[in-house]
């Protein structure tokens, strides 16, 4: 008897494109988990702790799904995961050390970058073949909507009142763009 494989037949797909999308999205969800872990390490017992935990729980679900997709599509992870492990935690803890507003400013910056990135992927897959990539499109759209919700939660919890908000947001978003660029390729 042969056990069923978790690998799904993926004939006719643009393998380099799908590899790049799954690799970078896995890295992003991994990094988001580390950011929220850092925030919880600092603010977990504060009044904002349950809100951070709720967002983190969704990010954990996202990471589980991308772990499954990596196996199904046979995509290797980025070699930068050990770096994103440390960088994500430091970003989360560092922003949380600025207080609730700092943590929420980080959330807004990261989630805005990620939802924009997901929108770009959605456009690309729609141009390629929306029917062929239907499953992946549904996943990315749902996760994009979750990230937008996290962005809005950050704004509702005074992110824009963080010290040097615009500088902080710009710096974090530049880091996100660099992480996306590198994780797609390495």
Account of the protein in words:
Keywords: Iron, Membrane, Metal-binding, Monooxygenase, Oxidoreductase, Ubiquinone, Ubiquinone biosynthesis. By secondary structure, this protein is mostly helical. It has a single domain (15-184), classed as Ferritin (Up-down Bundle), CATH 1.20.1260. The protein has helices at residues 15-43, 49-72, 81-96, 100-128, 134-156, 165-185. The termini are far apart. The model is unreliable at 1-7 (pLDDT under 50).
Brief sketch in words of this structure:
This protein has helices at residues 15-43, 49-72, 81-96, 100-128, 134-156, 165-185. It has 186 residues and is an all-alpha fold. The chain has a single domain (15-184), classed as Ferritin.
Spans where pLDDT lies below 50 across 5 or more residues? 1-7
In total, the number of strands is 0
Quickly count the helices. 6
Percent strand equals under 5%
Q: Which oligomeric form is depicted?
A: single chain
For the record, the count of structural domains works out to 1
Largest sheet: none
């Amino acid at each position: 008897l042969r056990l069923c494989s978790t690998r799904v037949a993926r004939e006719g797909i643009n393998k380099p494109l799908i590899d790049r999308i799954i690799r970078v999205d896995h890295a992003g969800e991994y990094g988001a988990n580390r950011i929220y872990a850092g925030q919880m390490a600092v603010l977990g017992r504060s009044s904002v702790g349950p809100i951070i935990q709720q967002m983190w729980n969704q990010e954990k679900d996202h990471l589980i799904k991308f772990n499954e997709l990596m196996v199904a599509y046979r995509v290797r992870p980025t070699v930068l995961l050990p770096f994103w492990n440390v960088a994500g935690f430091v970003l989360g803890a560092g922003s949380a050390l600025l207080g609730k507003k700092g943590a929420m400013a980080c959330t807004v910056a990261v989630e805005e970058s990620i939802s924009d990135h997901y929108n770009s992927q959605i456009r690309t897959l729609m141009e390629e073949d929306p029917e062929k990539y239907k499953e992946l499109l549904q996943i990315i759209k749902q996760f994009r909507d979750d990230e937008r919700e996290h962005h809005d939660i950050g704004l509702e919890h005074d992110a824009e009142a963080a010290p040097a908000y615009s500088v902080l947001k710009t710096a974090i978003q530049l880091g996100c763009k660099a992480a996306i660029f590198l994780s797609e390729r390495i």
